[in-house]
Design a protein that fits this description.
The complex is a heterodimer. By secondary structure, chain A is an alpha+beta fold. In chain A, 18% of the residues lie in helices and 22% in strands. In chain A, strands 2-1-3 form a three-stranded antiparallel sheet. The radius of gyration of chain A is 21 Å and the shape is elongated. By secondary structure, chain B is mostly helical. Chain B has one domain: Ferritin, core subunit, four-helix bundle (Ferritin, Up-down Bundle). Chain B has a two-stranded antiparallel ribbon. In chain B, helix 2 runs antiparallel to helix 3, helix 3 runs antiparallel to helix 6 and helix 5 packs antiparallel against helix 6. The chains are: A alpha+beta, B mainly alpha. Chain A: This is 1,2-phenylacetyl-CoA epoxidase subunit B.
Protein backbone atom coordinates (compact mmCIF):
# COMPACT_ATOMS: atom_id res chain seq x y z
CA UNK A 1 0.00 0.00 0.00
CA UNK A 2 1.45 3.36 -0.98
CA UNK A 3 0.99 5.99 1.72
CA UNK A 4 -0.26 9.47 0.87
CA UNK A 5 -0.78 10.88 4.31
CA UNK A 6 -2.66 14.01 5.17
CA UNK A 7 -0.55 16.41 7.23
CA UNK A 8 -0.93 16.60 11.00
CA UNK A 9 -2.52 19.65 12.69
CA UNK A 10 -2.49 20.47 16.38
CA UNK A 11 -5.85 21.57 17.74
CA UNK A 12 -6.46 24.24 20.39
CA UNK A 13 -9.93 24.92 21.75
CA UNK A 14 -11.26 27.87 23.76
CA UNK A 15 -13.91 26.35 25.98
CA UNK A 16 -15.61 29.68 26.67
CA UNK A 17 -14.94 33.35 26.22
CA UNK A 18 -12.63 34.63 28.89
CA UNK A 19 -10.44 31.51 28.86
CA UNK A 20 -7.31 30.62 26.84
CA UNK A 21 -7.26 28.31 23.87
CA UNK A 22 -5.97 25.03 25.21
CA UNK A 23 -4.26 22.22 23.33
CA UNK A 24 -6.52 19.19 23.10
CA UNK A 25 -5.04 16.85 20.50
CA UNK A 26 -4.40 16.62 16.81
CA UNK A 27 -6.10 15.76 13.53
CA UNK A 28 -5.07 14.90 9.99
CA UNK A 29 -6.37 17.11 7.18
CA UNK A 30 -5.24 18.15 3.71
CA UNK A 31 -5.66 21.89 4.36
CA UNK A 32 -6.56 24.42 7.05
CA UNK A 33 -10.23 24.61 6.17
CA UNK A 34 -10.75 20.86 6.50
CA UNK A 35 -8.54 20.75 9.59
CA UNK A 36 -10.97 23.13 11.30
CA UNK A 37 -13.94 21.08 10.16
CA UNK A 38 -12.43 17.81 11.37
CA UNK A 39 -11.32 19.38 14.66
CA UNK A 40 -14.86 20.59 15.23
CA UNK A 41 -16.27 17.08 14.70
CA UNK A 42 -13.59 15.33 16.74
CA UNK A 43 -13.11 17.68 19.68
CA UNK A 44 -16.33 19.65 20.17
CA UNK A 45 -19.25 17.23 19.97
CA UNK A 46 -20.53 18.34 23.38
CA UNK A 47 -20.18 22.10 23.37
CA UNK A 48 -16.58 21.90 24.54
CA UNK A 49 -15.65 24.99 22.61
CA UNK A 50 -16.56 28.38 21.21
CA UNK A 51 -13.42 28.84 19.12
CA UNK A 52 -10.84 26.54 17.53
CA UNK A 53 -7.28 27.11 16.36
CA UNK A 54 -5.49 24.63 14.15
CA UNK A 55 -1.76 24.85 13.52
CA UNK A 56 0.30 22.66 11.28
CA UNK A 57 2.26 20.41 13.65
CA UNK A 58 5.38 20.96 11.54
CA UNK A 59 5.13 24.74 12.16
CA UNK A 60 5.31 24.44 15.93
CA UNK A 61 8.68 25.26 17.47
CA UNK A 62 9.09 23.58 20.83
CA UNK A 63 11.75 23.84 23.51
CA UNK A 64 14.11 20.90 23.76
CA UNK A 65 13.21 18.55 26.66
CA UNK A 66 16.94 18.11 27.28
CA UNK A 67 17.24 21.85 27.85
CA UNK A 68 14.69 21.74 30.66
CA UNK A 69 17.26 22.27 33.47
CA UNK A 70 18.94 25.34 32.01
CA UNK A 71 15.66 26.83 30.83
CA UNK A 72 13.50 26.35 33.86
CA UNK A 73 15.62 25.59 36.92
CA UNK A 74 16.99 29.14 37.30
CA UNK A 75 13.54 30.28 38.44
CA UNK A 76 13.63 27.82 41.30
CA UNK A 77 15.75 29.89 43.71
CA UNK A 78 14.10 33.23 42.93
CA UNK A 79 11.49 32.87 45.59
CA UNK A 80 11.48 36.63 46.10
CA UNK A 81 9.42 36.83 42.91
CA UNK A 82 6.45 35.45 44.83
CA UNK A 83 4.26 37.52 47.16
CA UNK A 84 4.50 34.86 49.88
CA UNK A 85 8.22 35.62 50.24
CA UNK A 86 7.38 38.78 52.18
CA UNK A 87 6.13 38.54 55.73
CA UNK A 88 4.33 41.70 56.70
CA UNK A 89 2.79 42.73 60.03
CA UNK A 90 -0.52 40.97 60.68
CA UNK A 91 -2.54 44.19 60.44
CA UNK A 92 -1.52 44.68 56.79
CA UNK A 93 -0.75 41.08 55.74
CA UNK A 94 -3.82 40.84 53.52
CA UNK A 95 -2.01 43.25 51.16
CA UNK B 1 -15.18 1.84 24.45
CA UNK B 2 -13.05 -0.85 24.68
CA UNK B 3 -9.63 -1.69 25.68
CA UNK B 4 -9.50 -5.23 26.74
CA UNK B 5 -6.57 -5.50 28.98
CA UNK B 6 -5.56 -4.49 25.56
CA UNK B 7 -2.10 -5.52 25.34
CA UNK B 8 -2.59 -8.72 23.50
CA UNK B 9 0.69 -10.11 22.16
CA UNK B 10 1.16 -9.27 18.53
CA UNK B 11 3.68 -11.75 17.20
CA UNK B 12 4.14 -10.54 13.65
CA UNK B 13 4.92 -6.99 12.75
CA UNK B 14 5.17 -4.59 15.65
CA UNK B 15 4.50 -1.07 14.37
CA UNK B 16 7.79 0.68 13.76
CA UNK B 17 9.06 4.05 14.85
CA UNK B 18 12.29 5.68 15.89
CA UNK B 19 14.52 3.41 17.94
CA UNK B 20 15.37 4.84 21.31
CA UNK B 21 19.01 4.92 22.32
CA UNK B 22 19.40 3.18 25.67
CA UNK B 23 21.15 5.33 28.24
CA UNK B 24 21.70 4.58 31.94
CA UNK B 25 21.40 8.19 33.16
CA UNK B 26 18.19 8.76 31.26
CA UNK B 27 16.89 5.42 32.48
CA UNK B 28 17.49 6.40 36.11
CA UNK B 29 15.70 9.70 35.56
CA UNK B 30 12.80 7.92 33.85
CA UNK B 31 12.48 5.36 36.68
CA UNK B 32 12.49 8.11 39.29
CA UNK B 33 9.78 9.99 37.45
CA UNK B 34 7.60 6.85 37.22
CA UNK B 35 8.19 5.97 40.88
CA UNK B 36 7.14 9.45 41.93
CA UNK B 37 3.87 9.00 40.01
CA UNK B 38 4.90 11.58 37.41
CA UNK B 39 4.00 11.74 33.74
CA UNK B 40 6.14 11.04 30.72
CA UNK B 41 5.53 13.39 27.79
CA UNK B 42 5.98 12.87 24.07
CA UNK B 43 9.47 14.27 23.64
CA UNK B 44 10.87 12.88 26.91
CA UNK B 45 13.33 10.04 26.79
CA UNK B 46 11.73 6.66 27.42
CA UNK B 47 12.99 3.07 27.25
CA UNK B 48 12.34 1.41 23.90
CA UNK B 49 10.22 -1.32 25.51
CA UNK B 50 7.99 1.29 27.19
CA UNK B 51 7.50 3.07 23.88
CA UNK B 52 6.73 -0.17 22.05
CA UNK B 53 4.27 -1.33 24.68
CA UNK B 54 2.45 1.98 24.44
CA UNK B 55 2.33 1.96 20.64
CA UNK B 56 0.93 -1.56 20.71
CA UNK B 57 -1.62 -0.88 23.45
CA UNK B 58 -2.82 2.53 22.24
CA UNK B 59 -3.10 1.40 18.63
CA UNK B 60 -4.95 -1.79 19.57
CA UNK B 61 -7.27 0.39 21.59
CA UNK B 62 -7.77 2.79 18.66
CA UNK B 63 -8.42 -0.08 16.26
CA UNK B 64 -11.01 -1.45 18.69
CA UNK B 65 -12.90 1.83 18.63
CA UNK B 66 -12.89 1.96 14.86
CA UNK B 67 -13.89 -1.67 14.37
CA UNK B 68 -16.41 -1.18 17.20
CA UNK B 69 -18.37 1.20 15.01
CA UNK B 70 -19.39 -1.72 12.79
CA UNK B 71 -21.59 -3.93 14.99
CA UNK B 72 -23.60 -0.90 16.12
CA UNK B 73 -23.59 0.83 12.76
CA UNK B 74 -25.42 -2.27 11.59
CA UNK B 75 -28.55 -1.03 13.40
CA UNK B 76 -28.57 2.68 12.62
CA UNK B 77 -30.95 2.38 9.68
CA UNK B 78 -33.22 0.04 11.62
CA UNK B 79 -33.47 1.91 14.92
CA UNK B 80 -37.09 1.71 16.12
CA UNK B 81 -37.58 5.45 16.64
CA UNK B 82 -36.06 8.76 15.66
CA UNK B 83 -34.93 9.30 19.25
CA UNK B 84 -33.09 5.97 19.36
CA UNK B 85 -31.59 6.58 15.95
CA UNK B 86 -30.22 9.99 17.01
CA UNK B 87 -28.75 8.42 20.18
CA UNK B 88 -27.16 5.55 18.27
CA UNK B 89 -25.71 7.90 15.65
CA UNK B 90 -24.17 10.00 18.41
CA UNK B 91 -22.72 6.93 20.06
CA UNK B 92 -21.19 5.53 16.87
CA UNK B 93 -19.77 8.97 16.11
CA UNK B 94 -18.21 8.98 19.58
CA UNK B 95 -16.54 5.65 18.85
CA UNK B 96 -15.00 7.13 15.73
CA UNK B 97 -13.90 10.14 17.79
CA UNK B 98 -12.36 7.91 20.45
CA UNK B 99 -10.40 6.09 17.78
CA UNK B 100 -9.09 9.42 16.50
CA UNK B 101 -8.06 10.71 19.96
CA UNK B 102 -6.16 7.49 20.45
CA UNK B 103 -4.44 7.44 17.06
CA UNK B 104 -3.37 11.02 17.81
CA UNK B 105 -1.93 9.88 21.16
CA UNK B 106 -0.11 6.97 19.48
CA UNK B 107 1.35 9.29 16.85
CA UNK B 108 3.16 11.27 19.55
CA UNK B 109 5.34 8.16 19.91
CA UNK B 110 6.75 8.54 16.43
CA UNK B 111 4.48 6.27 14.38
CA UNK B 112 2.02 7.52 11.79
CA UNK B 113 -1.69 6.85 11.86
CA UNK B 114 -1.69 5.36 8.37
CA UNK B 115 1.11 3.02 9.32
CA UNK B 116 -0.83 1.79 12.35
CA UNK B 117 -4.02 1.51 10.34
CA UNK B 118 -2.28 -0.57 7.69
CA UNK B 119 -1.30 -3.03 10.40
CA UNK B 120 -4.99 -3.40 11.24
CA UNK B 121 -6.06 -3.80 7.62
CA UNK B 122 -3.52 -6.45 6.76
CA UNK B 123 -4.24 -8.42 9.91
CA UNK B 124 -1.01 -7.77 11.84
CA UNK B 125 -2.64 -5.72 14.58
CA UNK B 126 -5.15 -6.96 17.13
CA UNK B 127 -8.33 -5.33 18.34
CA UNK B 128 -10.80 -6.20 21.05
CA UNK B 129 -12.30 -9.68 20.67
CA UNK B 130 -15.75 -8.37 21.56
CA UNK B 131 -16.40 -6.91 18.11
CA UNK B 132 -16.18 -10.23 16.41
CA UNK B 133 -19.62 -11.16 17.67
CA UNK B 134 -22.67 -10.31 15.57
CA UNK B 135 -25.47 -7.92 16.59
CA UNK B 136 -28.51 -10.04 15.83
CA UNK B 137 -31.37 -8.01 17.30
CA UNK B 138 -32.12 -4.48 18.50
CA UNK B 139 -31.67 -5.68 22.09
CA UNK B 140 -27.99 -6.28 21.26
CA UNK B 141 -27.58 -2.51 20.94
CA UNK B 142 -28.82 -2.04 24.49
CA UNK B 143 -26.72 -4.89 25.85
CA UNK B 144 -23.58 -3.60 24.14
CA UNK B 145 -24.08 -0.24 25.84
CA UNK B 146 -24.80 -1.76 29.23
CA UNK B 147 -22.31 -4.66 29.38
CA UNK B 148 -19.66 -4.00 26.76
CA UNK B 149 -19.32 -0.29 27.47
CA UNK B 150 -19.73 -1.02 31.15
CA UNK B 151 -16.76 -3.40 31.01
CA UNK B 152 -14.85 -0.87 28.95
CA UNK B 153 -15.41 1.83 31.57
CA UNK B 154 -14.01 -0.45 34.30
CA UNK B 155 -10.96 -1.03 32.13
CA UNK B 156 -10.51 2.55 31.11
CA UNK B 157 -10.93 4.56 34.30
CA UNK B 158 -7.54 3.42 35.64
CA UNK B 159 -5.97 4.38 32.28
CA UNK B 160 -6.83 8.03 32.97
CA UNK B 161 -3.89 7.89 35.40
CA UNK B 162 -1.57 6.15 32.97
CA UNK B 163 2.03 7.41 33.14
CA UNK B 164 2.10 8.48 29.49
CA UNK B 165 0.60 11.99 29.33
CA UNK B 166 -0.97 11.96 25.84
CA UNK B 167 -2.64 8.57 26.47
CA UNK B 168 -3.86 9.59 29.88
CA UNK B 169 -5.38 12.83 28.54
CA UNK B 170 -7.11 10.98 25.69
CA UNK B 171 -8.55 8.56 28.24
CA UNK B 172 -9.92 11.35 30.42
CA UNK B 173 -11.81 12.65 27.41
CA UNK B 174 -13.03 9.18 26.46
CA UNK B 175 -14.20 8.25 29.95
CA UNK B 176 -16.32 11.39 30.15
CA UNK B 177 -18.20 10.22 27.06
CA UNK B 178 -18.46 6.52 27.95
CA UNK B 179 -20.91 7.05 30.73
CA UNK B 180 -23.49 8.23 28.19
CA UNK B 181 -22.90 5.01 26.22
CA UNK B 182 -23.58 2.76 29.16
CA UNK B 183 -26.59 4.65 30.43
CA UNK B 184 -28.31 4.89 27.06
CA UNK B 185 -27.91 1.11 26.68
CA UNK B 186 -29.42 0.35 30.06
CA UNK B 187 -32.22 2.82 29.40
CA UNK B 188 -32.98 1.12 26.09
CA UNK B 189 -33.18 -2.27 27.83
CA UNK B 190 -35.38 -0.92 30.62
CA UNK B 191 -37.81 0.27 27.99
CA UNK B 192 -37.81 -3.09 26.21
CA UNK B 193 -38.39 -4.90 29.50
CA UNK B 194 -41.59 -2.89 29.92
CA UNK B 195 -42.75 -4.14 26.52
CA UNK B 196 -44.15 -7.43 25.25
CA UNK B 197 -43.03 -10.92 26.38
CA UNK B 198 -41.23 -11.23 23.02
CA UNK B 199 -39.27 -8.06 23.72
CA UNK B 200 -38.29 -9.27 27.17
CA UNK B 201 -37.20 -12.55 25.67
CA UNK B 202 -35.12 -10.67 23.15
CA UNK B 203 -33.31 -8.85 25.96
CA UNK B 204 -32.63 -12.09 27.84
CA UNK B 205 -31.34 -13.71 24.65
CA UNK B 206 -28.98 -10.82 23.98
CA UNK B 207 -27.69 -10.94 27.57
CA UNK B 208 -27.12 -14.69 27.21
CA UNK B 209 -24.98 -14.13 24.14
CA UNK B 210 -23.00 -11.10 25.37
CA UNK B 211 -22.35 -11.89 29.04
CA UNK B 212 -19.37 -14.21 28.63
CA UNK B 213 -17.70 -12.24 25.84
CA UNK B 214 -18.08 -9.13 28.03
CA UNK B 215 -16.24 -10.58 31.00
CA UNK B 216 -13.57 -11.92 28.62
CA UNK B 217 -12.87 -8.29 27.70
CA UNK B 218 -10.76 -7.96 30.83
CA UNK B 219 -8.26 -10.28 29.20
CA UNK B 220 -6.52 -13.44 30.42
CA UNK B 221 -6.20 -14.31 34.11
CA UNK B 222 -3.39 -12.46 35.84
CA UNK B 223 -1.25 -15.58 36.01
CA UNK B 224 -1.51 -16.00 32.21
CA UNK B 225 -1.13 -12.37 31.26
CA UNK B 226 2.33 -11.93 29.83
CA UNK B 227 2.57 -8.13 29.72
CA UNK B 228 0.84 -7.24 32.96
CA UNK B 229 3.77 -7.09 35.33
CA UNK B 230 5.94 -4.66 33.39
CA UNK B 231 2.90 -2.58 32.50
CA UNK B 232 2.14 -2.25 36.21
CA UNK B 233 5.74 -1.31 36.92
CA UNK B 234 5.55 1.42 34.29
CA UNK B 235 2.25 2.81 35.45
CA UNK B 236 0.61 1.92 32.14
CA UNK B 237 -1.68 -0.48 33.93
CA UNK B 238 -2.91 0.20 37.45
CA UNK B 239 -5.34 -2.61 38.31
CA UNK B 240 -4.98 -6.27 37.31
CA UNK B 241 -7.26 -8.05 34.82
CA UNK B 242 -8.82 -10.30 37.46
CA UNK B 243 -9.45 -7.47 39.91
CA UNK B 244 -11.18 -5.42 37.23
CA UNK B 245 -13.26 -8.38 36.13
CA UNK B 246 -14.37 -9.01 39.71
CA UNK B 247 -15.30 -5.37 40.13
CA UNK B 248 -17.38 -5.52 36.97
CA UNK B 249 -19.21 -8.70 37.98
CA UNK B 250 -19.94 -7.29 41.44
CA UNK B 251 -21.36 -4.08 39.96
CA UNK B 252 -23.43 -5.82 37.29
CA UNK B 253 -25.39 -8.31 39.40
CA UNK B 254 -27.57 -5.63 40.97
CA UNK B 255 -28.14 -3.96 37.61
CA UNK B 256 -29.33 -7.28 36.16
CA UNK B 257 -31.76 -7.69 39.05
CA UNK B 258 -33.25 -4.23 38.53
CA UNK B 259 -33.58 -4.97 34.86
CA UNK B 260 -35.26 -8.30 35.60
CA UNK B 261 -33.03 -10.59 33.59
CA UNK B 262 -30.86 -13.55 34.58
CA UNK B 263 -27.12 -13.58 33.97
CA UNK B 264 -26.31 -16.89 32.21
CA UNK B 265 -24.00 -18.36 34.83
CA UNK B 266 -25.31 -21.02 37.24
CA UNK B 267 -22.19 -20.59 39.40
CA UNK B 268 -22.77 -16.90 39.98
CA UNK B 269 -23.39 -16.40 43.71
CA UNK B 270 -22.44 -14.13 46.58
CA UNK B 271 -19.45 -15.31 48.58
CA UNK B 272 -19.77 -13.88 52.06
CA UNK B 273 -16.18 -14.75 53.02
CA UNK B 274 -14.64 -13.02 50.02
CA UNK B 275 -17.12 -10.18 49.97
CA UNK B 276 -17.49 -10.71 46.21
CA UNK B 277 -19.57 -12.69 43.76
CA UNK B 278 -18.11 -16.03 42.63
CA UNK B 279 -18.59 -16.84 38.98
CA UNK B 280 -18.10 -19.77 36.62
CA UNK B 281 -15.10 -20.73 34.50
CA UNK B 282 -14.39 -18.70 31.38
CA UNK B 283 -13.98 -20.46 28.05
CA UNK B 284 -10.48 -19.24 27.18
CA UNK B 285 -10.34 -21.36 24.08
CA UNK B 286 -13.13 -19.26 22.63
CA UNK B 287 -11.35 -16.07 23.69
CA UNK B 288 -8.04 -16.93 22.04
CA UNK B 289 -9.69 -18.32 18.96
CA UNK B 290 -11.60 -15.01 18.58
CA UNK B 291 -8.54 -12.87 19.25
CA UNK B 292 -6.57 -14.89 16.75
CA UNK B 293 -8.97 -14.37 13.90
CA UNK B 294 -11.42 -17.26 14.12
CA UNK B 295 -14.39 -15.55 15.76
CA UNK B 296 -17.78 -15.27 14.10
CA UNK B 297 -17.19 -11.90 12.41
CA UNK B 298 -13.40 -11.37 12.16
CA UNK B 299 -13.35 -11.71 8.40
CA UNK B 300 -16.36 -9.44 7.85
CA UNK B 301 -15.05 -6.75 10.17
CA UNK B 302 -11.70 -6.41 8.44
CA UNK B 303 -13.32 -6.69 5.01
CA UNK B 304 -15.62 -3.77 5.89
CA UNK B 305 -12.71 -1.64 7.11
CA UNK B 306 -10.64 -2.46 4.03
CA UNK B 307 -13.53 -1.60 1.73
CA UNK B 308 -14.03 1.79 3.40
CA UNK B 309 -10.29 2.48 3.24
CA UNK B 310 -9.87 1.47 -0.37
CA UNK B 311 -13.01 3.12 -1.67
CA UNK B 312 -12.09 6.33 0.14
CA UNK B 313 -8.59 6.45 -1.35
CA UNK B 314 -9.54 8.69 -4.27
CA UNK B 315 -11.18 11.18 -1.90
CA UNK B 316 -8.07 11.38 0.28
CA UNK B 317 -5.87 11.85 -2.78
CA UNK B 318 -8.14 14.40 -4.42
CA UNK B 319 -8.27 16.46 -1.22
CA UNK B 320 -4.47 16.49 -1.02
CA UNK B 321 -4.18 17.48 -4.65
CA UNK B 322 -6.76 20.24 -4.20
CA UNK B 323 -4.81 21.58 -1.22
CA UNK B 324 -1.59 21.49 -3.24
CA UNK B 325 -3.15 23.44 -6.13
CA UNK B 326 -4.80 25.95 -3.79
CA UNK B 327 -1.47 26.60 -2.10
CA UNK B 328 0.28 27.04 -5.45
CA UNK B 329 -2.40 29.48 -6.62
CA UNK B 330 -2.11 31.54 -3.43
CA UNK B 331 1.64 31.69 -3.90
CA UNK B 332 1.24 33.08 -7.41
CA UNK B 333 -1.32 35.65 -6.24
CA UNK B 334 0.97 36.81 -3.44
Amino acid sequence: MERKEWPLWEVFVRSKNGLDHKHCGSVHAPDARLALQVARDVYTRRQEGVSIWVVRASDIVASDPDAKPELFDPAEDKIYRHPTFYTLPDEVNHM
Amino acid sequence: MYTQALDIPQPKGEPKGPRVVENADYQAEFDAKIDAGGFIEAKDWMPEAYRKTLVRQISQHAHSEIVGMLPEGNWITRAPSLKRKAILLAKVQDEGGHGLYLYAAAETLGVSRDELYEALLDGRAKYSSIFNYPTLTWADIGVIGWLVDGAAIMNQIPLCKCSYGPYSRAMVRICKEESFHQRQGYDLLLQMMKGTPEQREMVQDAVNRWWWPSIMMFGPHDKDSQHSETSMRWGIKRISNDDLRQKFVDATVKQAEVLGITLPDPDLKWNEARGHYDFGAIDWEEFWSTVNGHGQCNVDRIAARRKAWEEGAWVREAALEHARKQAAREKVAA
